[in-house]
Amino acid sequence: MTSSAVATGLLSAIQARTAKAGVIGLGYVGLPLAMSMAKAGFTVTGFDVDPQKITAIAAGESYIEAVSSAVLQAEIAAGRFAATCDFKGLADCDVIAICVPTPLTRQRDPDLSYVENTCRTIAETLRPGQLVVLESTTWPGTTEEVVKPILQKTGLAAGKDFFLGFSPEREDPGNRDFATSTIPKVVAGDGADARELMIAFYGAVVKTVVPVSTTATAEAVKLTENIFRAVNIALVNELKLVYDEMGIDIWEVIDAAKTKPFGYMPFYPGPGLGGHCIPIDPFYLTWKSREFDRPTRFIELAGEVNTAMPYHIVARVAETLDRQAGKALSRSRVLVLGLAYKKNVPDIRESPSLRMMELLKERGADIAYHDPFIAEIPRTREYLDLMGQRSIAFDEATIRSFDLVLVSTDHDAVDYQSIADWAPLIVDTRNIFARRQIVSTNIVKA
After folding, report:
1. At residue 30, does pLDDT exceed 90?
2. Which has the least CB within 10 A, 164, 263, 390, 443?
3. CATH: 3.30.70.20, 2.60.120.200, 3.40.50.720, 3.90.190.20. Which one for 230-445?
4. Mode of pairing for the β-strands spanning 163-166 and 185-189
5. Which CATH class is domain 5-213?
Protein backbone atom coordinates (compact mmCIF):
# COMPACT_ATOMS: atom_id res chain seq x y z
CA MET A 1 0.00 0.00 0.00
CA THR A 2 1.19 3.52 -0.76
CA SER A 3 1.98 5.65 2.28
CA SER A 4 0.70 9.07 1.23
CA ALA A 5 -2.54 10.53 -0.08
CA VAL A 6 -0.71 11.85 -3.16
CA ALA A 7 0.65 8.39 -4.02
CA THR A 8 -2.68 6.72 -3.28
CA GLY A 9 -4.51 9.09 -5.60
CA LEU A 10 -2.09 8.43 -8.46
CA LEU A 11 -2.22 4.68 -7.84
CA SER A 12 -6.03 4.74 -8.01
CA ALA A 13 -5.91 6.68 -11.29
CA ILE A 14 -3.44 4.18 -12.77
CA GLN A 15 -5.57 1.22 -11.72
CA ALA A 16 -8.69 2.86 -13.18
CA ARG A 17 -6.84 3.80 -16.39
CA THR A 18 -7.84 7.42 -15.87
CA ALA A 19 -4.20 8.49 -15.41
CA LYS A 20 -2.90 10.39 -18.42
CA ALA A 21 0.51 9.42 -19.78
CA GLY A 22 3.12 11.44 -21.63
CA VAL A 23 6.07 10.11 -23.62
CA ILE A 24 8.94 12.45 -24.43
CA GLY A 25 10.87 11.39 -27.52
CA LEU A 26 8.93 9.58 -30.25
CA GLY A 27 11.70 7.52 -31.80
CA TYR A 28 12.45 3.79 -31.83
CA VAL A 29 11.72 3.55 -28.09
CA GLY A 30 9.15 6.23 -27.43
CA LEU A 31 6.59 5.61 -30.17
CA PRO A 32 6.25 1.83 -29.54
CA LEU A 33 6.01 2.54 -25.79
CA ALA A 34 3.30 5.15 -26.38
CA MET A 35 1.32 2.65 -28.47
CA SER A 36 1.58 0.02 -25.74
CA MET A 37 0.32 2.53 -23.18
CA ALA A 38 -2.58 3.51 -25.43
CA LYS A 39 -3.49 -0.11 -26.13
CA ALA A 40 -3.56 -0.69 -22.37
CA GLY A 41 -6.31 1.93 -22.09
CA PHE A 42 -4.38 5.02 -21.07
CA THR A 43 -4.78 8.38 -22.80
CA VAL A 44 -1.30 9.20 -24.11
CA THR A 45 0.33 12.35 -25.42
CA GLY A 46 3.59 12.08 -27.30
CA PHE A 47 6.08 14.96 -27.17
CA ASP A 48 8.92 15.57 -29.60
CA VAL A 49 11.00 18.52 -30.77
CA ASP A 50 10.91 17.29 -34.38
CA PRO A 51 7.88 18.80 -36.16
CA GLN A 52 8.20 16.30 -39.01
CA LYS A 53 7.38 13.46 -36.63
CA ILE A 54 4.37 15.31 -35.30
CA THR A 55 3.15 15.98 -38.83
CA ALA A 56 3.56 12.32 -39.81
CA ILE A 57 1.67 11.14 -36.72
CA ALA A 58 -1.15 13.61 -37.36
CA ALA A 59 -1.45 12.12 -40.85
CA GLY A 60 -1.53 8.61 -39.38
CA GLU A 61 1.79 7.70 -40.97
CA SER A 62 4.21 5.70 -38.85
CA TYR A 63 7.95 6.16 -39.41
CA ILE A 64 8.89 3.32 -37.04
CA GLU A 65 8.88 -0.27 -38.36
CA ALA A 66 7.67 -1.67 -35.02
CA VAL A 67 4.50 0.46 -35.20
CA SER A 68 2.26 -0.01 -38.20
CA SER A 69 0.35 2.94 -39.59
CA ALA A 70 -2.86 0.96 -39.01
CA VAL A 71 -2.12 0.62 -35.30
CA LEU A 72 -1.19 4.29 -35.05
CA GLN A 73 -4.38 5.36 -36.83
CA ALA A 74 -6.51 3.13 -34.59
CA GLU A 75 -5.16 4.67 -31.39
CA ILE A 76 -5.55 8.20 -32.76
CA ALA A 77 -9.12 7.48 -33.89
CA ALA A 78 -9.95 6.06 -30.46
CA GLY A 79 -8.76 9.28 -28.86
CA ARG A 80 -6.08 7.51 -26.89
CA PHE A 81 -3.05 9.05 -28.63
CA ALA A 82 -1.99 12.43 -29.94
CA ALA A 83 1.39 14.06 -30.50
CA THR A 84 2.66 17.59 -30.12
CA CYS A 85 5.71 19.85 -30.00
CA ASP A 86 4.10 21.89 -27.21
CA PHE A 87 5.63 20.67 -23.97
CA LYS A 88 3.25 22.72 -21.82
CA GLY A 89 0.94 19.74 -22.13
CA LEU A 90 3.19 17.86 -19.72
CA ALA A 91 1.28 19.55 -16.91
CA ASP A 92 -1.74 17.40 -17.75
CA CYS A 93 0.20 14.13 -17.66
CA ASP A 94 0.16 11.97 -14.53
CA VAL A 95 2.92 9.66 -15.76
CA ILE A 96 5.80 11.00 -17.88
CA ALA A 97 8.29 8.67 -19.60
CA ILE A 98 11.58 10.12 -20.85
CA CYS A 99 12.81 8.35 -24.00
CA VAL A 100 15.51 10.67 -25.34
CA PRO A 101 18.98 9.84 -26.73
CA THR A 102 22.02 9.34 -24.49
CA PRO A 103 24.96 9.48 -26.94
CA LEU A 104 28.68 9.75 -26.29
CA THR A 105 30.92 12.74 -26.84
CA ARG A 106 33.88 12.41 -29.21
CA GLN A 107 35.94 11.57 -26.10
CA ARG A 108 33.56 8.69 -25.30
CA ASP A 109 32.14 10.43 -22.26
CA PRO A 110 28.38 10.34 -21.57
CA ASP A 111 26.40 13.14 -23.15
CA LEU A 112 23.39 13.63 -20.88
CA SER A 113 22.40 16.97 -22.40
CA TYR A 114 19.17 15.54 -23.85
CA VAL A 115 18.16 14.05 -20.49
CA GLU A 116 19.10 17.20 -18.57
CA ASN A 117 17.29 19.53 -20.95
CA THR A 118 14.22 17.29 -20.90
CA CYS A 119 14.19 17.30 -17.08
CA ARG A 120 14.40 21.10 -17.06
CA THR A 121 11.43 21.18 -19.42
CA ILE A 122 9.46 18.83 -17.16
CA ALA A 123 10.37 20.97 -14.15
CA GLU A 124 8.64 23.97 -15.75
CA THR A 125 5.24 22.30 -15.28
CA LEU A 126 6.01 19.72 -12.57
CA ARG A 127 3.18 19.38 -10.07
CA PRO A 128 2.29 17.13 -7.13
CA GLY A 129 1.01 13.69 -8.06
CA GLN A 130 3.17 13.03 -11.12
CA LEU A 131 5.36 9.98 -11.77
CA VAL A 132 8.45 10.75 -13.88
CA VAL A 133 10.25 7.77 -15.41
CA LEU A 134 13.61 7.74 -17.17
CA GLU A 135 13.87 5.04 -19.86
CA SER A 136 17.04 6.28 -21.58
CA THR A 137 20.10 4.08 -21.07
CA THR A 138 22.66 5.66 -18.79
CA TRP A 139 25.20 5.07 -16.01
CA PRO A 140 24.12 3.71 -12.62
CA GLY A 141 23.11 6.62 -10.44
CA THR A 142 21.80 8.97 -13.12
CA THR A 143 18.18 8.97 -11.92
CA GLU A 144 19.25 9.74 -8.36
CA GLU A 145 22.17 12.06 -9.09
CA VAL A 146 21.07 13.94 -12.23
CA VAL A 147 17.31 13.70 -12.79
CA LYS A 148 16.19 14.05 -9.18
CA PRO A 149 18.14 17.24 -8.33
CA ILE A 150 16.89 19.04 -11.45
CA LEU A 151 13.26 18.21 -10.63
CA GLN A 152 13.65 19.05 -6.94
CA LYS A 153 14.88 22.56 -7.78
CA THR A 154 11.18 23.31 -8.20
CA GLY A 155 10.77 22.99 -4.45
CA LEU A 156 8.78 19.77 -4.83
CA ALA A 157 10.19 16.72 -3.06
CA ALA A 158 10.67 13.33 -4.72
CA GLY A 159 8.81 10.59 -2.88
CA LYS A 160 6.45 13.08 -1.28
CA ASP A 161 5.12 15.47 -3.90
CA PHE A 162 6.15 13.68 -7.09
CA PHE A 163 7.59 10.23 -7.77
CA LEU A 164 10.61 9.08 -9.71
CA GLY A 165 11.46 5.80 -11.42
CA PHE A 166 13.71 4.11 -13.95
CA SER A 167 12.76 1.42 -16.44
CA PRO A 168 15.30 0.57 -19.16
CA GLU A 169 14.05 0.21 -22.70
CA ARG A 170 14.56 -3.18 -24.32
CA GLU A 171 13.58 -2.51 -27.91
CA ASP A 172 15.11 -4.66 -30.65
CA PRO A 173 14.35 -3.07 -34.05
CA GLY A 174 13.48 -5.65 -36.69
CA ASN A 175 12.71 -8.42 -34.19
CA ARG A 176 9.20 -9.63 -34.99
CA ASP A 177 9.15 -12.23 -32.22
CA PHE A 178 8.74 -9.62 -29.48
CA ALA A 179 6.82 -6.38 -29.05
CA THR A 180 7.13 -3.74 -26.33
CA SER A 181 4.23 -5.25 -24.41
CA THR A 182 5.64 -8.80 -24.47
CA ILE A 183 9.21 -8.03 -23.43
CA PRO A 184 9.65 -8.33 -19.63
CA LYS A 185 10.10 -4.83 -18.19
CA VAL A 186 12.59 -4.09 -15.43
CA VAL A 187 11.23 -1.40 -13.11
CA ALA A 188 12.52 0.46 -10.08
CA GLY A 189 11.34 3.40 -8.01
CA ASP A 190 13.01 6.01 -5.88
CA GLY A 191 11.41 4.89 -2.63
CA ALA A 192 8.63 2.50 -1.72
CA ASP A 193 5.74 4.56 -3.09
CA ALA A 194 7.52 5.16 -6.41
CA ARG A 195 8.29 1.44 -6.66
CA GLU A 196 4.63 0.52 -6.17
CA LEU A 197 3.52 3.09 -8.72
CA MET A 198 6.08 1.79 -11.23
CA ILE A 199 4.88 -1.78 -10.76
CA ALA A 200 1.24 -0.74 -11.13
CA PHE A 201 1.71 1.42 -14.21
CA TYR A 202 4.04 -0.82 -16.19
CA GLY A 203 2.16 -3.89 -15.01
CA ALA A 204 -0.84 -2.45 -16.83
CA VAL A 205 1.19 -1.80 -20.00
CA VAL A 206 3.36 -4.91 -20.40
CA LYS A 207 2.83 -8.61 -19.75
CA THR A 208 5.61 -9.05 -17.18
CA VAL A 209 7.33 -6.59 -14.84
CA VAL A 210 10.60 -7.38 -13.07
CA PRO A 211 10.97 -5.12 -10.02
CA VAL A 212 14.48 -4.45 -8.67
CA SER A 213 15.52 -2.73 -5.47
CA THR A 214 16.91 0.61 -6.68
CA THR A 215 16.99 2.81 -9.76
CA ALA A 216 20.78 2.35 -9.90
CA THR A 217 20.26 -1.42 -10.04
CA ALA A 218 17.82 -1.04 -12.94
CA GLU A 219 20.30 1.22 -14.73
CA ALA A 220 23.00 -1.41 -14.21
CA VAL A 221 20.74 -4.14 -15.61
CA LYS A 222 20.51 -2.39 -18.98
CA LEU A 223 24.25 -1.79 -19.16
CA THR A 224 24.97 -5.40 -18.23
CA GLU A 225 22.75 -6.69 -21.04
CA ASN A 226 24.51 -4.61 -23.67
CA ILE A 227 28.02 -5.12 -22.29
CA PHE A 228 27.39 -8.88 -22.47
CA ARG A 229 26.68 -8.58 -26.18
CA ALA A 230 29.50 -6.15 -26.91
CA VAL A 231 32.13 -8.31 -25.21
CA ASN A 232 30.98 -11.54 -26.83
CA ILE A 233 30.76 -9.99 -30.29
CA ALA A 234 34.27 -8.64 -29.81
CA LEU A 235 35.41 -12.13 -28.87
CA VAL A 236 34.10 -13.74 -32.06
CA ASN A 237 35.44 -10.83 -34.13
CA GLU A 238 38.88 -11.46 -32.67
CA LEU A 239 38.54 -15.20 -33.19
CA LYS A 240 37.60 -14.55 -36.80
CA LEU A 241 40.87 -12.71 -37.40
CA VAL A 242 42.90 -15.45 -35.74
CA TYR A 243 41.13 -18.31 -37.51
CA ASP A 244 41.43 -16.51 -40.86
CA GLU A 245 45.19 -16.64 -40.49
CA MET A 246 44.92 -20.38 -39.76
CA GLY A 247 42.71 -21.05 -42.76
CA ILE A 248 39.74 -21.90 -40.53
CA ASP A 249 36.20 -20.68 -41.30
CA ILE A 250 34.81 -19.00 -38.15
CA TRP A 251 31.26 -19.49 -39.38
CA GLU A 252 31.73 -23.26 -39.64
CA VAL A 253 33.27 -23.26 -36.16
CA ILE A 254 30.28 -21.42 -34.66
CA ASP A 255 27.74 -23.63 -36.44
CA ALA A 256 29.40 -26.70 -34.98
CA ALA A 257 29.93 -25.20 -31.52
CA LYS A 258 26.29 -24.18 -31.12
CA THR A 259 25.18 -27.82 -31.35
CA LYS A 260 26.40 -28.17 -27.75
CA PRO A 261 23.19 -28.06 -25.69
CA PHE A 262 24.78 -26.39 -22.66
CA GLY A 263 27.54 -23.96 -21.75
CA TYR A 264 27.66 -22.17 -25.13
CA MET A 265 25.71 -19.35 -26.75
CA PRO A 266 26.45 -18.39 -30.38
CA PHE A 267 27.51 -14.86 -31.28
CA TYR A 268 28.46 -13.89 -34.81
CA PRO A 269 31.22 -11.72 -36.26
CA GLY A 270 30.59 -8.77 -38.53
CA PRO A 271 32.00 -5.51 -39.86
CA GLY A 272 31.65 -3.75 -36.51
CA LEU A 273 28.95 -2.71 -34.07
CA GLY A 274 26.03 -0.44 -34.84
CA GLY A 275 22.81 0.83 -33.33
CA HIS A 276 22.31 3.22 -30.46
CA CYS A 277 22.90 0.71 -27.66
CA ILE A 278 25.75 -1.78 -27.98
CA PRO A 279 28.50 0.49 -29.38
CA ILE A 280 27.67 3.22 -26.83
CA ASP A 281 26.19 1.94 -23.59
CA PRO A 282 29.23 0.00 -22.30
CA PHE A 283 31.22 3.22 -22.16
CA TYR A 284 28.70 4.73 -19.74
CA LEU A 285 29.91 2.19 -17.19
CA THR A 286 33.54 2.70 -18.19
CA TRP A 287 33.11 6.43 -17.51
CA LYS A 288 31.34 5.93 -14.18
CA SER A 289 33.86 3.31 -12.99
CA ARG A 290 36.63 5.93 -13.00
CA GLU A 291 34.92 7.51 -10.01
CA PHE A 292 35.65 4.33 -8.07
CA ASP A 293 39.17 3.77 -9.46
CA ARG A 294 38.03 0.49 -10.99
CA PRO A 295 39.32 -0.29 -14.50
CA THR A 296 36.96 -1.92 -17.00
CA ARG A 297 39.51 -3.76 -19.11
CA PHE A 298 37.12 -6.20 -20.80
CA ILE A 299 34.77 -3.40 -21.87
CA GLU A 300 37.57 -1.21 -23.19
CA LEU A 301 39.26 -4.08 -25.01
CA ALA A 302 35.94 -5.12 -26.56
CA GLY A 303 35.47 -1.55 -27.73
CA GLU A 304 38.92 -1.54 -29.33
CA VAL A 305 38.30 -4.82 -31.15
CA ASN A 306 34.87 -3.85 -32.45
CA THR A 307 35.95 -0.35 -33.46
CA ALA A 308 38.84 -1.81 -35.46
CA MET A 309 36.64 -4.13 -37.56
CA PRO A 310 35.79 -1.62 -40.34
CA TYR A 311 39.53 -1.07 -40.85
CA HIS A 312 40.06 -4.82 -41.17
CA ILE A 313 37.23 -5.13 -43.69
CA VAL A 314 38.53 -2.28 -45.85
CA ALA A 315 41.99 -3.86 -45.79
CA ARG A 316 40.38 -7.13 -46.92
CA VAL A 317 38.64 -5.31 -49.77
CA ALA A 318 41.95 -3.81 -50.92
CA GLU A 319 43.67 -7.20 -50.67
CA THR A 320 40.90 -8.92 -52.65
CA LEU A 321 41.03 -6.35 -55.44
CA ASP A 322 44.81 -6.58 -55.62
CA ARG A 323 45.01 -10.38 -55.61
CA GLN A 324 42.02 -11.31 -57.73
CA ALA A 325 41.64 -8.32 -60.05
CA GLY A 326 45.14 -6.89 -60.06
CA LYS A 327 43.67 -3.50 -59.31
CA ALA A 328 44.40 -0.92 -56.64
CA LEU A 329 41.62 0.19 -54.32
CA SER A 330 42.28 3.79 -55.35
CA ARG A 331 41.33 2.94 -58.95
CA SER A 332 38.31 0.79 -58.10
CA ARG A 333 34.56 1.23 -57.82
CA VAL A 334 33.11 -0.35 -54.67
CA LEU A 335 29.43 -0.89 -53.91
CA VAL A 336 28.51 -1.16 -50.24
CA LEU A 337 25.49 -3.44 -49.96
CA GLY A 338 23.48 -2.49 -46.89
CA LEU A 339 23.75 0.77 -44.99
CA ALA A 340 21.65 -0.07 -41.91
CA TYR A 341 23.44 -1.33 -38.81
CA LYS A 342 21.38 -4.56 -38.85
CA LYS A 343 19.23 -6.35 -41.34
CA ASN A 344 15.64 -5.51 -42.20
CA VAL A 345 15.56 -2.10 -40.49
CA PRO A 346 16.08 1.47 -41.80
CA ASP A 347 18.29 2.41 -38.85
CA ILE A 348 21.80 3.74 -39.57
CA ARG A 349 22.73 4.87 -36.05
CA GLU A 350 26.42 4.09 -35.46
CA SER A 351 26.37 1.83 -38.54
CA PRO A 352 29.80 0.43 -39.46
CA SER A 353 28.78 0.80 -43.11
CA LEU A 354 29.16 4.55 -42.81
CA ARG A 355 32.63 4.19 -41.35
CA MET A 356 33.66 1.78 -44.11
CA MET A 357 32.35 4.13 -46.79
CA GLU A 358 34.41 6.91 -45.26
CA LEU A 359 37.53 4.73 -45.10
CA LEU A 360 37.07 3.58 -48.70
CA LYS A 361 36.75 7.20 -49.83
CA GLU A 362 39.88 8.16 -47.91
CA ARG A 363 41.77 5.47 -49.79
CA GLY A 364 40.60 6.82 -53.14
CA ALA A 365 37.84 4.37 -54.04
CA ASP A 366 34.77 5.45 -55.96
CA ILE A 367 31.93 4.34 -53.69
CA ALA A 368 28.18 3.93 -53.78
CA TYR A 369 25.62 2.01 -51.73
CA HIS A 370 22.41 0.08 -52.16
CA ASP A 371 19.93 -0.41 -49.32
CA PRO A 372 16.25 -1.25 -49.90
CA PHE A 373 15.35 0.48 -46.60
CA ILE A 374 17.36 3.70 -46.94
CA ALA A 375 16.79 5.77 -50.06
CA GLU A 376 19.09 8.60 -49.00
CA ILE A 377 21.74 9.11 -46.33
CA PRO A 378 20.38 11.61 -43.81
CA ARG A 379 22.37 14.11 -41.79
CA THR A 380 24.62 12.46 -39.20
CA ARG A 381 26.97 13.97 -36.65
CA GLU A 382 30.10 12.24 -37.93
CA TYR A 383 29.58 11.71 -41.66
CA LEU A 384 28.33 15.00 -43.04
CA ASP A 385 30.14 14.46 -46.35
CA LEU A 386 27.97 11.38 -47.02
CA MET A 387 24.69 13.25 -46.46
CA GLY A 388 22.40 13.25 -49.48
CA GLN A 389 24.00 10.29 -51.24
CA ARG A 390 21.24 8.07 -52.63
CA SER A 391 20.85 4.32 -52.91
CA ILE A 392 21.66 3.18 -56.44
CA ALA A 393 19.40 1.07 -58.62
CA PHE A 394 19.57 -2.69 -58.29
CA ASP A 395 19.97 -4.11 -61.80
CA GLU A 396 22.51 -6.15 -63.72
CA ALA A 397 24.16 -3.30 -65.59
CA THR A 398 24.63 -1.26 -62.43
CA ILE A 399 26.02 -4.13 -60.35
CA ARG A 400 28.42 -5.18 -63.11
CA SER A 401 29.76 -1.62 -63.30
CA PHE A 402 31.44 -2.04 -59.90
CA ASP A 403 34.75 -3.80 -59.36
CA LEU A 404 33.63 -5.21 -56.02
CA VAL A 405 30.48 -5.52 -53.89
CA LEU A 406 30.99 -5.31 -50.15
CA VAL A 407 28.14 -6.99 -48.24
CA SER A 408 27.86 -5.06 -44.99
CA THR A 409 24.22 -5.68 -44.04
CA ASP A 410 22.38 -8.88 -44.93
CA HIS A 411 18.85 -7.59 -45.64
CA ASP A 412 16.46 -10.41 -46.55
CA ALA A 413 14.96 -8.39 -49.40
CA VAL A 414 18.15 -8.46 -51.49
CA ASP A 415 18.51 -10.94 -54.37
CA TYR A 416 21.87 -12.48 -53.42
CA GLN A 417 21.87 -15.01 -56.25
CA SER A 418 21.82 -12.13 -58.72
CA ILE A 419 24.64 -10.43 -56.83
CA ALA A 420 26.69 -13.63 -57.11
CA ASP A 421 25.91 -13.84 -60.82
CA TRP A 422 26.60 -10.19 -61.66
CA ALA A 423 29.33 -8.89 -59.35
CA PRO A 424 32.95 -9.41 -60.48
CA LEU A 425 34.06 -9.72 -56.85
CA ILE A 426 32.24 -9.95 -53.52
CA VAL A 427 33.49 -9.49 -49.97
CA ASP A 428 30.92 -10.99 -47.60
CA THR A 429 31.06 -9.86 -43.95
CA ARG A 430 27.85 -11.66 -42.94
CA ASN A 431 28.27 -15.15 -44.44
CA ILE A 432 24.98 -14.58 -46.26
CA PHE A 433 25.98 -16.48 -49.42
CA ALA A 434 27.03 -19.62 -47.56
CA ARG A 435 23.88 -19.43 -45.43
CA ARG A 436 21.84 -19.37 -48.63
CA GLN A 437 23.99 -22.11 -50.16
CA ILE A 438 25.19 -19.83 -52.94
CA VAL A 439 28.64 -20.91 -54.09
CA SER A 440 30.88 -18.87 -56.39
CA THR A 441 34.59 -18.37 -56.87
CA ASN A 442 34.13 -14.60 -56.78
CA ILE A 443 32.99 -14.60 -53.10
CA VAL A 444 35.49 -13.86 -50.33
CA LYS A 445 34.51 -14.07 -46.68
CA ALA A 446 35.70 -11.29 -44.37
Report:
1. yes
2. 263
3. 3.40.50.720
4. antiparallel
5. alpha beta
